[in-house]
Specification:
Distance between the termini: 69 Å
CATH topology: Uracil-DNA Glycosylase, subunit E
CATH architecture: 3-Layer(aba) Sandwich
Largest sheet: 6 strands, mixed
Low-confidence stretches: 20-29, 45-62
Number of helices: 11
Radius of gyration: 26 Å
Shape: globular
Strand order of the largest sheet: 1-3-2-4-6-5
Number of strands: 6
Strand content: 5-15%
Structural class: alpha/beta
Number of domains: 1
Amino acid sequence: MGRDMNAQPHDIAAIESLLAFWRDAGVDACYGEAPVDHTHIAPPPAVRAVQGATASVVAAPPAIGAGEALAEARRLAAGAATLQDLAAAVAGFEGCPLRGMGATQSVFGRGDPNAPVLIIGEGPGAEEDRAGQPFVGKAGKLLDRMLDAAGLAGKVFITNTVFWRPPGNRTPSPQEQAVCAPFVERAFAILQPRVVLLLGAASSKSILQTDEGIMKLRGQWKEWRLAEGAVSAPALPTLHPAFLLRQPQAKRQVWADLLSLASRLETDSVEFHD
């Protein structure tokens, strides 16, 4: 870099001092606006030729279509008579795209198979993927403590809207939830719970088929009714326990929802909100 002939001596000294600072920090090159991966080492031409030939010979298996996947999910779900059967059907289902995005196994559910309360979360995280059970991480432990305090321990069966971990623990997409929905609905039909607790926005929106935000939905009793089978139950959206880990002050709202649910079990009385 050449010096500006019009620059004052103190300006030049300041610039040289700044450059020395960055040099001492390990910055020894200038980069343009476009990102460049300087760690990438290109393979020699012979290797590139082999890679190209291999790619042209070994084609990826054709992806299953969304309609075909949904039909297969419905077929498998309908054939399950118990929650154990349903867990096996989920494990054998290959139509959810999340299955091929890094998940190590399916994560179906945990809890009492005759529970009066069905809890539906969003999707498994890293710890759930390792354990093969939903809500076993920090959020799950918080949920268990709150359920116990509300007198609901041992009265719940817990599952999610999707059964494979989304990459990076992101929120499952509506398309991913839709292809798993037949299994969720079949769990609802088999269990026939007295009440349903929906954890978080993604779960509430998917089950209730609404675009309303969770802050508006939470604490409001809704009816979840299957289109087939005449199965229905009151459903209560609330905040996800993972949100409570980030916003502890919101625990009061979830506690109020859990008390409302516990009271609903005792009285069999609920007022639905449109």
